[in-house]
Amino acid sequence: MTNSTSINLDNLNVEELRAITESAQQLIHQKQHQSLFEAYIKFEQIAKDTGSTIEDILKAGESLEKKRSIKYRNTANAEETWTGRGRKPTWLVEALAAESKLEDFAI
Length: 107
Description:
The chain is mostly helical. It has 2 domains: about 10-70; about 70-105, no CATH class. Helix content is about 55%, strand content about 5%. The protein has 3 helices and 2 strands. Strands 1-2 form a two-stranded antiparallel ribbon.
C-alpha cells in the first residue's frame, strides 16, 4: 500500500520533525495494536471452530515446534535428542567417539 502523497521534510524545523516522528510512532503503535486485535479475533474463531481453547492451540504449537526443532535422536534411547545447536549431549559425544557418524542419528 503506497501513498502517492509525499511530504517535503526539508523545510521543517527540528521541533516539527520531532512532532511528525512522535505522531508517526503513535500511529504505528495503534496500527500494530489493531492488527494484533484482529489476529486475536481470528484466533478465537479458529479455536471455536475446532472445539478448542486458545491455550490448547498454543500448547499444541509449542509441542510441535519442539518436535520440529529436534534434528538428532539417540538410537539407544529415543528420549535423548539434540537440536544440533549448542554443545553436543554426552550420549552423542560418546557415540561419535566410538566411531559412529552424526548422520546415523539424524531424524
